[in-house]
Specification:
The complex is a heterodimer. By secondary structure, chain A is of the alpha/beta class. Chain A has 12 helices and 10 strands. The mean pLDDT of chain A is 87. In chain B, helix 1 links the parallel strand 1 and strand 2. The model of chain B has no long low-confidence stretch (mean pLDDT 92). Chain B starts with 6 loop residues before the first strand and ends with a helix. Classes of the chains: A alpha/beta, B alpha/beta. At the A-B interface, helix 2, strand 3 and strand 4 of A face helix 1, strand 2 and helix 2 of B. Strand 3 of chain A pairs parallel with strand 2 of chain B.
Chain lengths: 333, 134
């Protein structure tokens, strides 16, 4: 005995680890203090995000990826953070991602944690970054982060993860969906899952077309019987990463080896191009800024009486103040 | 800022595939504001104990309709204890004869519910069982 929680986690205690995750999720002071203590030990894990619409097979793919990492000659320790939505009305949640991950049960090198989004809208919970830090400090080599999967605006994951996979499946949308802003822009790797279903070629073609619009790639086509080629507008240089499109079948593991290989190549690209450091800096800055905003707002709220606050809201309702003016009034400007 | 939510693991051990009851309870607990981790069918006691540890739940709900409860539940209790999870409250739903229910309660099961049990009762008793801990 006599070990601090941080020491226990660094030496691999899973029970203390699970408890700290709860404390961090709940924002408890003792949990946050342990997190501070663990922070110097973070930064080693590879954070891989998976996002995409509901039903594209993210959880099944996570299951297969973890199996693959565990089966290599030098097995990696894998943590999985799976986020599902909280009800905006009751705050309750059904977290069902484990249903697809039963193959991983009984492996001490895998740790699965389900999280409810608790009102956050970007596809992750507010504390997901902190939960990931705990796993990182605890020595997990790979951390797979699965987002809620609700739609086109789940871009928080790109800030948190070092490699972001966007998972698509046949039959979910046409090329217009593919060129809309948002989720596809954040992809480092595009995955067409359920590739055994009819329509997989169409999905792949739509994604390829979208990438062709965004990235300078060489195109070869036939025009009046003549083969023509347009050279890439820039020589293929190593600082540019064109997201590969990979096909997988997550129910049987087809294509998962190639996917892991592509992730490895992405890591090498990040290191070569210097993006690794840039992303790391942007990530920590975003996390710091979010925390700063939250702290400032709650501090400020304490300095304003509820009566004063309600009065301003009343005037908003009566339309005698605009929201912009209301902010100025409260800030005393 | 600090927010505590009741976390519940709902699992179906053994071989029966009738999960409607479990899903009704999952949904009711969600509507009561709890975070419910559903693991699906055909779980072994080992899988349930491991999931309870990783998810750091307050409550494990077990649904059994197969008649194997006297084999499975004592094993689950034993594994939870071995993992240092004796604070976790166990609730059981299913077809449990009265004499078995008495034995299971003596082993440490907190609540046992048969067909027709109102979900409101289950919710109240879960909340009550956790209050006495604090």
């Amino acid at each position: 005995m006599g070990k601090s929680p941080a020491e226990s986690i660094l030496s691999g205690d899973r029970k203390i680890l699970a408890r700290l995750l709860t404390q961090v999720e709940n924002g408890s002071p003792e949990g946050l203090a342990t997190l501070d203590e663990l922070f110097p030990h973070t930064g080693k894990a590879h954070l891989i995000g998976l996002t995409g619409a509901p039903g594209t097979g993210k959880s099944s793919l996570v299951n297969q990826m973890a199996l693959y990492y565990r089966a290599t000659t030098n097995p990696k320790r894998v943590a999985i953070v799976a986020v599902d939505p909280s009800s905006p009305f009751t705050g309750g949640a059904v977290l069902g991602d484990r249903v697809r991950m039963r193959d991983l049960a009984g492996d001490p090198g895998v740790f699965i944690r389900s999280m409810a989004s608790r009102g956050s809208l970007g596809g992750l919970a507010q504390t997901t970054a902190a939960v990931v830090q705990v796993f990182d400090a605890a020595g997990f080599d790979v951390i797979l982060i699965e987002t809620v999967g609700a739609g086109q605006t789940e871009v928080d994951i790109a800030r948190l993860a070092r490699t972001t996979l966007v998972v698509e499946a046949p039959g979910l949308g046409d090329e217009i969906q593919a060129i809309k802003a948002g989720i596809l822009e954040i992809a480092d790797i595009l995955v067409v899952n359920k590739a055994d279903l009819p329509g997989a070629e169409n999905t792949e073609r739509a994604l390829k077309g979208m990438l062709g619009l965004a990235h300078p790639v060489e195109k070869v086509f036939r025009h009046h019987g003549q083969v023509m080629a347009t050279p890439a507008s820039e020589p293929a240089n190593s600082s540019l990463w064109v997201p590969p499109i990979l096909r997988t079948i997550a129910t049987d593991g087809t294509g998962v080896g190639e996917l892991i290989e592509a992730i490895e190549q992405h890591v090498q690209h990040l290191r070569r191009s210097g993006d690794w450091g840039r992303r790391e800096r942007a990530r920590l800055e975003a996390e710091f800024e979010a925390l700063l905003t939250e702290t400032l707002v709650s501090k400020f709220r304490l300095s304003v009486s509820d009566a004063r606050y309600d009065e301003v809201v009343d005037r908003l309702v009566q339309r005698t103040l605009s929201p912009g003016e209301a902010v100025k009034v409260l800030l005393g400007g | 800022m600090s927010e505590r939510r009741i976390r519940v693991l709902v699992a179906k051990p053994g071989l029966d595939g009738h999960d409607r009851g479990a899903k009704v309870v999952v949904r009711a607990l969600r509507d009561a504001g709890m975070e419910v981790i559903y693991t699906g069918l055909r779980q072994t006691p080992e899988m349930i104990a491991e999931a309870a540890l990783q998810e750091d739940v307050n409550v494990v709900g077990i649904s059994i309709l197969s008649g194997a409860h006297m084999a499975l539940i004592p094993r689950i209790l034993e594994l939870l204890k071995a993992n240092g999870q004796e604070h976790v409250k166990i609730f059981v739903g299913g077809i449990i004869p009265d004499e078995d229910a008495l034995k299971l309660k003596a082993m440490g099961v907190t609540g046992i519910y048969g067909p027709g049990a109102p979900t409101g009762t289950i919710i109240d008793e879960i909340r009550l069982s956790l209050e006495s801990d604090k």
